[in-house]
Structure formats: structure tokens, C-alpha cells
Specification:
This protein is mainly alpha-helical and about 190 residues long. It has 2 domains: about 5-120, Up-down Bundle (de novo design (two linked rop proteins)), CATH 1.20.1440; about 130-185, Alpha-Beta Plaits (2-Layer Sandwich), CATH 3.30.70.20. About 45% of the residues lie in helices and about 5% in strands. The protein has 9 helices and 4 strands. The protein has helices at about 5-10, 30-45, 50-65, 75-90, 90-95, 100-105, 110-120, 145-150, 175-180; strands at about 130-135, 155, 165, 185. Strands 1-4 form a two-stranded antiparallel sheet. A hairpin with a 7-residue loop joins β2 (about 155) and β3. The two termini are about 35 Å apart. The structure holds iron/sulfur cluster (3 copies). The site of one iron/sulfur cluster has 14 residues, from α9.
């Protein structure tokens, strides 16, 4: 794709101030869309309803998705609202604000679906959807993780595989940082 005015417009983006951010598979596209929408919600002057109210509702829908609380049909509602805002907002700010939502929906539908249908964030960025897991194959039972866990979510006997109680875990990451055997991962 040519990086010029027409090329960016055709791909659902636009020429901005000349900056470019390169992202990879470790970036969650739903969170990225939410990040940009947050900016618009802050910057909206409030003169027209689609931008003033619509973008807040759009943000709430994205938030719900990143928290793993979205339901079947929410993605259709998200797209519909984004299109309404795009078509009816008064000025360029509101008319372009749904672009990050629409372009990520078009180009990364599987990421949205993983959040909604499987309660998973493929990039491992949405904290509410993360789960710290100990591999029984790699765990040596050194007990270090259990000793650093601030909420006593890890149990296990010395020299035997340990286990994380995900209902107690607060996802602080301390155990993973301490494990010298690479036995703890985020899923
Ligand atoms: S679209 Fe423009 S006029 Fe409407 S609320 Fe947003 S910034 Fe104001
Ligand atoms: S620190 Fe790693 S190896 Fe040691 S008990 Fe915990 S998960 Fe197992
Ligand atoms: S992520 Fe934090 S709270 Fe969860 S098991 Fe590891 S140390 Fe405990």
C-alpha cells in the first residue's frame, strides 16, 4: 500500500501529523481502538450528539469487550454505532473518530471474536482475560513462586508441580518474574 493521502484513506485511515506507529502481534487491536477513542471522547467539544454521546457509548462497548463481558451481537452493534457516528457527526473529529474501530474490525475480526466468543486476548494484553498458568512439565517444585505470591494463590508440595488458583490470582505477574524455569506463562 502506498503511504500517501489516497492510500491511507482507502485503507480506512488518514494522513495525520506525519507520525507512524508500527505494531505487531503483541498489540491488542481492541485495546488500540479503545486507546484512540479515549482521545476523541476527551477532545469532543460536545456540540453534536453522535460525537458527544455516541463516542462514549462506543468506548463503553470496547471496554466491555476488553473485560470479557461482551455478548453475541455486540460486534454488530459496535459496527452499527461506529457507522452512525461516522455518517452523522458534525465535524472531522467526530467523522473520523470511529475509524480505528472500523478498520480494526475489518482487518482483525478474529481478535474481536476471540475476546467475545472465547474470552481470550490473543495478544495477551487485556488484563481481565489473562490467566497465569504453571506448566506441570516445566515446574520443578522449587516453591519460589508460592513464596512471592502476595495473595497465596499458588499451592503445591516441594519438588512437585505447583498450581495457581485463578479465582484468587490478582494477575500481578510476580510469580512469572521469579520462576527461573520458565514454567509460568500467560494464557
Ligand atoms: S463531531 Fe465535532 S462538532 Fe460534533 S461534538 Fe465532535 S468535535 Fe464537536
Ligand atoms: S517458581 Fe517455577 S519452578 Fe518453582 S514452583 Fe513456581 S512454577 Fe514451579
Ligand atoms: S500473578 Fe501474582 S497473584 Fe497471580 S499467582 Fe502469580 S504472584 Fe500470585
Amino acid at each position: 500500500m502506498a503511504i500517501d493521502y489516497d492510500g491511507l484513506l482507502a485503507s480506512g485511515s488518514m494522513m495525520g501529523s506525519g507520525g507512524m506507529i508500527v505494531m505487531d502481534e503483541d498489540d491488542c487491536m481492541v485495546s488500540v481502538a479503545k486507546f484512540y477513542l479515549d482521545f476523541t471522547v476527551e477532545e469532543s467539544c460536545g456540540k453534536c450528539t453522535p460525537c458527544r454521546i455516541g463516542n462514549k457509548r462506543l468506548y463503553e462497548m470496547l471496554d466491555k469487550i476488553t473485560l470479557g463481558k461482551a455478548e453475541e451481537g455486540d460486534l454488530t452493534r459496535l459496527r452499527n454505532l461506529a457507522n452512525v457516528i461516522k455518517d452523522t457527526a458534525l465535524c472531522g473529529l467526530g467523522q473520523t473518530s470511529p475509524n480505528p474501530v472500523l478498520s480494526t474490525l475489518d482487518n482483525f475480526p478474529e481478535e474481536y471474536e476471540a475476546h467475545v466468543k472465547e474470552s481470550k486476548c490473543p495478544a495477551g494484553q487485556c488484563r481481565a482475560l489473562m490467566q497465569y498458568v504453571i506448566s506441570p512439565k516445566l515446574c520443578t517444585g522449587c516453591t519460589l513462586c508460592a513464596r512471592v505470591c502476595p495473595v497465596d494463590a499458588i499451592s503445591g508440595d516441594k519438588k512437585l508441580p505447583h498450581f495457581i488458583d485463578t479465582s484468587v490470582c490478582i494477575k500481578c505477574g510476580a510469580c512469572m518474574e521469579k520462576c527461573k524455569f520458565g514454567a509460568i506463562s500467560i494464557q
